[in-house]
Amino acid sequence: MSNVYVADQPSAAREGRPSGRLLEVEDLRVEFRTRDGVAKVINGVNYHVDAGETLAVLGESGSGKSVTAQTIMGILDTPPGFVTGGEIRFHGKDMLKMSAEERRRIRGEGIAMVFQDALSALNPVFTVGFQIAEQFRVRRGMSRRDAKIRAAEMLDQVKIPNAKQRVNEYPHQFSGGMRQRVMIAMSLALDPEVLIADEPTTALDVTVQAQIMDLLGELQRERQMGLILITHDLGVVADVADRIAVMYAGRIVEEANVYELYAKPAHPYTIGLLESIPRIDEKGQQLRTIRGLPPSLLKIPSGCPFHPRCPMAQPVCPEKLPPLLQLGPTRASACHFAEELVNRD
Amino acid sequence: MSDPTSGSLVTTPPPEQPGVVGDTAPVGAGLPETKRDQPRGLLGDAWYDLRRKPLFWISAGLIALFVVMAAFPFFFTSGSPNDPVGTGLSRSLEGPSGDAWFGTDILGRDIFARTIYGARASIIVAVAATLGTVLLGASVGVLAGFRGGWVDALLSRIADVFFGIPFVLGAIVILFTFNPEGAGSNEWKIMGLVILALCLLSWPVAMRIMRSSILAAKNADYVVAARALGASNSRIIFKHLIPNCLAPVLVYATILIGAYIGAEATLSFLGVGLQSPVVSWGVMISDSQQYIRVAPYWLLFPSAFLVTAVLSFVMLGEAVREALDPKLR
Fold first, then answer.
1. CA of B36, closest CA in chain A: separation in Å?
2. What is the value of pTM for the model shown?
């Protein structure tokens, strides 16, 4: 492979050169200072999303995918969580250097978020219409009546039947799938440029999952938003995502577009993830899993953090941390043997 | 609750008819639906809900009656609370009769008139002290719970200090310091002092209730979600935290009204609270207890009024709490 180079070149980007990216996370580092020690939750994450593009962030629990999203939104619990380095650029401006007020203004209008559990993410004492309308009233200065009409339109856009009546109902009166639609309507109310969906379908049953994903995809195309889809479900992302970033122990271990990733994963962890999807043509066989457990973030293994669980580990793996190697225009992998993996037949 | 999933496809039945199944709902929902088109906030919805509760109307009616009684006692009785019914003590300790409906006390005074006039002091003290306690306690609790850290630690310790003062002892100290014996007994001044003493010695309970509710609600997803949508701190406190944390304090407040009428009586009995010639139910109850065997009606009537007043406030609190909780609608 000729076009292999190290992707970490922060200096060029840091000179204020507008990269034209909508949202860009660069070398983000977050740690949780807990009583048991410092947990390095995010160790240099780089990713970006452009308008009209869907990036899926994939990883096990504790891989740091949600914490990255919380840091972008500015809702990280501090303490214990602290951002120790890196940049989050929105339209080229570093959000971590903005004042609290500037950041607050970006929330909702620039970047919005859909939460996993819509029942707990909606205020139980207000009608859904009131909660959506509140944003129009506060941020857009609309009258109560106009705001309510707009709220009903929002519910209609997320395909809630009978939106005009349901706007007066409370979150607990909605079913799980409908509630998630309400949550999406609420996040989209102020027309954000980037939507972060943190496991939006995890709390739903399978048929509803598909509907919600279709809806998200549709709304994203319509509005040409950047969508960051955080999930641990490989099945969910296949249809919707343009690119996939796989996270492990607070790092991106592989980034590729959907077809490349599914066809030829370039990191042993991704291979493990893909193999552990149950398959209909392998009936009767034992389900394959990745052996071992995700590492404790208080004590991340030396070298490549995946080496204790890696079936292809070599002596070099515990010694040296593999950098994220660019393997092609759209793909990168943080494995010492990425090239071999890509070049295998 | 009917199956929540069916609710997503059809109009949910109006809450007054929980048994109605989805397909018949549009017929039944015709009338309320037009009314429900009005944009309303939390309080509007609560009021909409309260209006159809008999419990609310009964308690609100009784409370209104007591308030009118406190404001205009002379509408209810032509008797005087302090002058004897007959000449001198000629009609002392008489049972209920035509011109003294509730009987007379040891000094020959009309118990009915005294009970009516007693409503003023009792209700003013109880309601004002409850409002003061809840407002003070809840605002400190919100501040402590929301800010956390050293603010929380400081405010909690201050609350602990006040919590540690024994109630009766603390009240005696406050009332004696600001109203030494023989300093004259201005009715309003003593009432103010009693209210102050009750507030100062009881706010830590309201503070703790509020603080713990806020702590529980502060990390709820809907608060994080509101923040992620760009809500400011004051909006989060007033729109998300307080409406969700109100119920426990509200329940405490209704209980407190009853307790305060009793506490006012206790202080009067100890000689530091309201004194004759001011009349209150507490003063009457404490006066009557030595004569409970010869004149039980003297104790009975003011106590009955007190119990009714307390009950009305508790019922009102319960109705309001239910109305504010959308899950019970």
1. 7
2. 0.74
